[in-house]
Design brief:
alpha+beta, three-stranded antiparallel β-sheet
């Protein structure tokens, strides 16, 4: 999974969240922020995958990881 910041002359900056399945890289999400692009990608992934598919959503995992880091940054543990 990759996240790219794209800047163009015609549009403002935006973020693209992609996934490479070994056959090619596919854009799953777009947004003005990393979190909005990942949420869009998470939704698109869930719509594209079969319910019987056991593969975890990598965008959900990225959001959980990112959320955990943001929480630790905003509310540092007094034990650290």
């Amino acid at each position: 999974m990759n996240v790219y910041l794209v800047t163009t002359e015609l549009l403002s900056e935006f973020v693209v969240a992609t996934f490479n399945d070994g056959y090619g890289e596919v854009a799953y999400g777009l947004g003005h922020f990393i979190t909005t692009a990942l949420r869009d990608a998470e939704r698109q992934w869930n719509q594209a995958k079969d319910e019987d598919d056991d593969e975890d959503n990598p965008f959900t995992e990225a959001l959980q990881y990112l959320g955990d880091k943001v929480i630790r940054f905003l509310f540092p543990s007094p034990l650290n």
